[in-house]
Every structure is written in structure tokens, then in C-alpha cells.
Design brief:
- The chain has 24 helices and no strands.
- The chain is mainly alpha-helical.
- It folds into 4 domains: 198 residues, Growth Hormone, Chain: A (Up-down Bundle), CATH 1.20.1250; 54 residues; 237 residues, MFS general substrate transporter like domains (Growth Hormone, Chain: A); 32 residues, no CATH class.
- The N terminus and C terminus are likely disordered.
């Protein structure tokens, strides 16, 4: 790829541009985990309570998830380049605010701003890869993005601990400034895509503000309910029930409104009008729901059942992490070579279901052959479905719908991740409650039993190591048995995703690359023609002239 920044839409994108996109995704992913090991020091320095402790992490994730569809639609109206540069600037500003913060309230505000920028970076980079490359070539770049994401998530806790202990926790945020600044400059110089002239106020008026408000309100309400349930408030408390029910109700209203009210809807309902597309989105949810359980609950198994510490559990997770990263990259190149995605989606869901079904057999005593082999099987299944379903969805919508379709895919993934962790925790806790009398009979004091069978069971697993030999053995058996029921639930979700692959329409990916056109004129064309192709014999220029005449 050439580094020549000349405006040549037909040439391959610059290597430096691709580097800037990967740096943006790396920083967005890094900031999810970099504060995990630094949080105790941050909380001590800020003298904050448990609520502030939780919000420092949650604010970033909530803002990112809620803002993705809005960033995608904004880029459809004003163009990808201005939107991406603005997202970089927002992330840069949020990082600076966090680094300079003197109180926990300012830090949380900074994390919200950071999260807003991160949501834009993640969704716009994924959309841009769809814009810059032919459908067949995209797979390789999405695979590399998956690798970047995995490396960033793995390095985050290590870097956070290093900064907090050797320098200052503020470097968890300062590190973003030069790197994101470099990404912003490279984007400004090397990103050459169609950028429409959209008068500012015309563009602002064209944004679906009602839909944007509903997306933010529904997402924040639902995720807050899941975040608070069983931790801050009881699951049957009025606060949790109100938040969850309100979130679901707002989302139902959102889809009803999107179908009839906005001129340029945030998420066009036509994306969901085919069984194939609905199946792809449902598979995205199923895959994300199951995948995150491996990353989140396997370390719990290693610590609660095998007695590993935090560092050891990270090492024990390597077969899963390395396999899914490797298969994600391999999938991209296989798709690039063959143009086929359906066998990879089906095979991926088959292996991930098999792998998580095998986790049911994980014993209370170390069995390293099973632990390693089961993780490898699950990882083989997880890797392909990071990008293959996204490519299938992009391949089944019109070019002007690639942005909202990609944003919807990413949003569903984040929502599934959040719901999965909560549901898994609820299943685990309910199963542990069934072992309460067994734990008491083993001579474990009631305070510890309350911790191990309550809402803080996962954060209290270190209590097991402090028990005498026999009670410790009983507690580990209880966790192993309870987690097997949880793995069964995840395997069932995998089976649902596997069954849905039968409804995906088979369509080979093309080698041809068509430039994506953004702006209000293209939005108008999408409103008129929906998911259909351009009328026979009509060129894009003729069509835009026709729309302009209609607007006059």
C-alpha cells in the first residue's frame, strides 16, 4: 500500500491510514481494561465510595454503547472523515480531562466523554473498512482488528498496574494523548473518502434527535438496571425493576417511532425486514453472549475452583485467547480467498457450542488436558464469528445502509456482552444458594457462606483459599457444580445461534469495490429506494440530480 496521500479513491488505502485506524481501536479497547488494576489506587487517591468506584468503569462502557448508532448516522450525513476526526478529538479531550481530574466527579465526567469518543472510534473504523475495501478483502482487515482488540484488552491490566505502581495512575489516561493525537493527524492527512458538502444546520436538522434520545435513554436505563441488580439493589427492588422495564419499553417505542416518524431514521427498519438479516443479528447476539462468558467466567473457575491467583488465571486463559485470536485472523484470509462466509459462521457456532458444552465437564480438581483442549475447541468456534456475520450483514444491505447496519451489529454485541455477564452471575448465584446448607455443614462460618452464596460471590472467591482443607474442598466442589449449570445455559444459547444459521441467505462476497457516497442526497436516495439497487440505467450522478430536483 502506498503512503502517498494523493486523493485517489481507486488506489489502495495508505499503510499509515490503516495504522491510524488500528491505533484508534487499540486505545478504545485499552481503556476498557487499563483502569482495572489501577482502580484501588484511584479510589484511595480520590477518597471515593463503592458507587464512585463502580462508575469510573461503567461510565465509559455505557457512553460507548449508547453513542454508537448516533456516530454512524452522523457520519452518513456529514461524511466519515469529519465524524472520525471529531470522535478522535472527543476521545482526546476526555482522556485529558481524566488525567487532570482533581475529584471523582470530574473523573467520571471525563470517562463519559472518553466513552462517547470511543463509541465513535469503534463503529466508524468498522464502517470505514467496509467503505475502503471490497466485500471480500474486508475480512482480513476485520481479522487484524480482532487481534488489535485482543492485544489491547490483554495489555490493559498490565499497563494499568505498571503505571499505578511505578509512575502515576494518571498515566493510564496521559498515554492516550500522544497516540490518539498521532492517529488524528494521520487520519486528517491520509483518509481520502467521499466527503459531502453538508451545510451545518441542515445536517443538524437531519439528525434523528428523537431516535437518538431514545437509544441513549433505553440503553442507559437497561444497562444501569443490570449493573445495579444484586449489587447496589436487590433484583426485586423497585429501582432495578423500573430501570430494566423502562429500558425495554423505550426500545420498543424506539422501533415503532423509527418506522414512521423520522425522515432519516437512526436505524432504518428496512435492515430488519428479511429473515436472513434478523438471523445474522440474532447470531451476533448469541455469539457475543457466549464469547464473553469464556473471558469473564473461566478466570472465576481458575480462581474459585483451582485456587489460582489473578496472574495465574490470566496464563491459564491463554489457550482460549490465543486460539480465538488466531482463528479470527485466519477467518479473514479464508473469506478473502474464497468469498464464502456461511460455512465459517456455521462451523464457528458449532465449535463454540461444543466447547462450552464441554466446559460442563470441567472438574473440581486440575485436569490440564481437559482444561486446555476444551478451551481450544471453544476458541476455534469464537474466532470466526467476530467478523463473518458482520460481512454477511454488510453484503445484504444497500451501500447507504452499511453504516447503520454496522453500528447495529456493534451495538448488539456490546448489549449481549453486558447482559451475558449479569445472567451468568445470576445463574451461578442461584446454584450456589442450593449448596448453602452443604457449606454450613462443612463448618464454614456463616459470614463466609453469605459472601460465597450472595451477590458478591465472584468478588469473594479469595475467601476460599483462607478456609481449612476440608471446608475448602467442599467450597470448591460447590463452585464447580454450580458453574457446570451455568456452562449448560451458555451452551443452550450457542445451540440457538447454530440453529439460526440455516436462515442466512448464501451470497458470495464480491471482489469489486464501490465507493460509498455519504451526505443528505444519498440519505434521500436511501429513503426513496430503500434497500433496492439503483434503477436500471440510472447512474449515481443522474440519481442525485433527480433528488435535487425533487427537493426544489
Amino acid at each position: 500500500m502506498s503512503d502517498n496521500p494523493s486523493d485517489s479513491h481507486g488506489s489502495e488505502p495508505s499503510t499509515l491510514l490503516i495504522l491510524s485506524l488500528f491505533v484508534s481501536v487499540f486505545l478504545s479497547a485499552l481503556d476498557i481494561t487499563i483502569i482495572t488494576t489501577a482502580l484501588p489506587m484511584i479510589a484511595e487517591h480520590m477518597d471515593t465510595n463503592a458507587t464512585g468506584f463502580v462508575w469510573i468503569g461503567s461510565a465509559y462502557l455505557l457512553a460507548g454503547a449508547a453513542s454508537e448508532p448516533i456516530w454512524a448516522k452522523t457520519s452518513d450525513i456529514f461524511g466519515r472523515k469529519p465524524a472520525l476526526m471529531f470522535a478522535n478529538a472527543v476521545f482526546l479531550g476526555g482522556s485529558t480531562l481524566c488525567a487532570l481530574s482533581k475529584s471523582v466527579h470530574i473523573l467520571i465526567i471525563g470517562r463519559i466523554v472518553q466513552g462517547l469518543g470511543s463509541g465513535g472510534l469503534l463503529v466508524l473504523v468498522n464502517i470505514l473498512i467496509g467503505d475502503l475495501f471490497s466485500p471480500r478483502k474486508r475480512g482480513a482487515y476485520y481479522g487484524l482488528l480482532g487481534l488489535v482488540w485482543s492485544v489491547a484488552n490483554g495489555l490493559g491490566p498490565l499497563l494499568g498496574g505498571l503505571f499505578a505502581t511505578k509512575m502515576s495512575w494518571r498515566w493510564c489516561f496521559w498515554v492516550n494523548v500522544p497516540l490518539d493525537g498521532l492517529a488524528l493527524i494521520l487520519t486528517a492527512v491520509y483518509l481520502k473518502v467521499h466527503t459531502p458538502y453538508t451545510p451545518f444546520w441542515e445536517g443538524i436538522k437531519a439528525i434523528d434527535w428523537l431516535g437518538s434520545l431514545a437509544v441513549v435513554g433505553g440503553t442507559v436505563s437497561l444497562l444501569l438496571g443490570l449493573e445495579f441488580g444484586g449489587v447496589t439493589f436487590a433484583w426485586d427492588s423497585a429501582a432495578v425493576i423500573t430501570l430494566i422495564v423502562s429500558g425495554i419499553a423505550i426500545w420498543i417505542i424506539f422501533f415503532l417511532v423509527e418506522a414512521h416518524v423520522p425522515k432519516y431514521p437512526l436505524i432504518p427498519i428496512r435492515i430488519f425486514k428479511t429473515i436472513s438479516n434478523l438471523s445474522i443479528i440474532a447470531i451476533d447476539f448469541s455469539h457475543s453472549f457466549v464469547f464473553i462468558a469464556g473471558s469473564y467466567y473461566l478466570p472465576v473457575y481458575f480462581q474459585a475452583v483451582l485456587g489460582a491467583n489473578a496472574l495465574q488465571s490470566g496464563v491459564y486463559l491463554l489457550p482460549y485467547a490465543l486460539t480465538l485470536s488466531g482463528t479470527a485472523i485466519a477467518t479473514g484470509y479464508i473469506i478473502q480467498g474464497t468469498g464464502a462466509y456461511l460455512p465459517l459462521i456455521t462451523g464457528g457456532m458449532l465449535f463454540v457450542t461444543l466447547g462450552f458444552a464441554l466446559f460442563i465437564d470441567l472438574p473440581a480438581e486440575p485436569s490440564w488436558s481437559r482444561i486446555v483442549i476444551y478451551q481450544i475447541i471453544a476458541g476455534i468456534g469464537v474466532g470466526p464469528n467476530f467478523q463473518a456475520p458482520m460481512l454477511a450483514l454488510q453484503n445484504s444491505v444497500a451501500p447507504h445502509d452499511i453504516g447503520p447496519a454496522t453500528a447495529t451489529f456493534g451495538f448488539v454485541r456490546q448489549l449481549a456482552n453486558a447482559i451475558s455477564v449479569v445472567v451468568g452471575g445470576v445463574v451461578l448465584q442461584s446454584q450456589l444458594l442450593g449448596h448453602r446448607s452443604q457449606l454450613l455443614d462443612a463448618g464454614i462460618e456463616i459470614r463466609v457462606v453469605d459472601l460465597l452464596t450472595g451477590g458478591s460471590a465472584i468478588s469473594s472467591v479469595m475467601e476460599i483459599d483462607r478456609l481449612p482443607k476440608y471446608p475448602r474442598h467442599v467450597a470448591r466442589q460447590a463452585f464447580a457444580s454450580s458453574m457446570s449449570k451455568m456452562w449448560l445455559m451458555y451452551a443452550c444459547i450457542g445451540i440457538v445461534g447454530l440453529g439460526l444459521t440455516d436462515f442466512i441467505r448464501k451470497k458470495e462476497l464480491s471482489d469489486e469495490h464501490t465507493e460509498t457516497v455519504t451526505g443528505l442526497v444519498e440519505q434521500e436516495r436511501g429513503k426513496i429506494y430503500g434497500c433496492t439497487t439503483r434503477p436500471r440505467g440510472s447512474t449515481g450522478r443522474q440519481e442525485r440530480l433527480r433528488v435535487r430536483r425533487q427537493e426544489r
